[in-house]
TrEMBL record:
Keyword Transferase found: yes
Assembly description: Homodimer.
Protein name: Diphthine synthase
InterPro entries the record matches: 4pyrrol_Mease, 4pyrrol_Methylase_sf, 4pyrrole_Mease_sub1, 4pyrrole_Mease_sub2, Dphthn_synthase
Length: 260
């Protein structure tokens, strides 16, 4: 059986008891950290805490050559570890489908996810979020504009937008992500974009997460500290959301009267 185990957000302590016991019982343990990273731990620390040898996989091992994983799981329990919750990443859904097609049973053990953590940390309401999106780094000076389009479509439907940030090389910062969006907004002559509220979150799941809300023009130079970073551009706020942002994210009190 191939068992997908979510490790949580930050370090080796985030795993559920069910996930930990599953790893200990498994005959083989794989892990991947290209879809998301855990900045508060290392492979060595994971191996020591879980009491198992862990084999690190790359993108090609999962997306192009998954046979090793699937065949290993054909006659014994194999734990496939990843940060966050396993099925947030579409590549894991694909791996699960391939395993089932090959006659290998699968199971999921969920972990805490950035999708829910940002809601708890910010005080924004779950049912008011639209589609999330990822901001990639510019490639050969080409800036992908789809994240901006997702934001505008969500805003038209009065829905908040969660922005995940590129981690392929050095993890992108909130400041870098906002500057990419500002570049797109200037290109489209959307000069009011900088007046939108932004909720920045750093190191969710750690003992010292940072949550800061302010208008884009005022938060651009804010120091959020080490990664991982993510941010939300909210749509119109419920009065309770405004109070939560002021209390928990040090948002400017003018949002109580401003139409946001």
């Amino acid at each position: 059986m191939l068992i997908f185990v979510g490790l949580g957000l930050y370090d080796e302590m985030d795993i559920s008891i069910k996930g930990l016991e599953t790893i200990k019982r498994s005959k083989k343990v794989f892990v991947e950290f290209y879809t998301s990273k855990m900045m508060g731990t290392t492979i060595d620390r994971l191996e020591k805490f879980y009491g198992k040898d862990i084999e690190l996989l790359g993108r090609e091992d999962i997306e192009i050559r998954p046979d090793k994983i699937i065949e290993t799981a054909r006659n014994k329990d194999v734990a496939f570890l990843c940060a966050g919750d396993p099925m947030i990443a579409t590549t894991h859904i694909d791996l699960r489908i391939r395993a089932e097609d090959a006659g290998v049973k699968t199971r999921i053990i969920h972990g805490s996810s950035i999708q829910t953590a940002v809601i708890g940390l910010s005080g924004l309401q779950n049912y008011k979020f639209g589609r999330s999106t990822t901001i990639p780094r510019p490639y050969k000076n080409i800036i992908a504009e789809s994240p901006y389009d997702v934001f505008k479509n969500n805003l038209d439907n009065n829905l908040h937008t969660l922005f995940l940030l590129d981690i392929s090389d050095e993890p992108m910062t909130i400041n870098e992500g906002l500057k990419i969006l500002l570049n797109i907004s200037d290109k489209r002559k959307d000069y009011k974009f900088k007046d939108n509220l932004c909720v920045g979150i750093a190191r969710a799941g750690s003992d010292n997460p940072v949550v800061k809300a302010d208008f884009i023009k005022d938060i651009l130079d804010y120091n959020f500290g080490p990664p991982l970073h993510t941010f939300i551009l909210p749509a119109k706020l419920h009065f309770m959301e405004k109070e939560a942002l002021i209390r928990f994210a040090k948002a400017p009190k003018e949002i109580l009267t401003k139409e946001t």
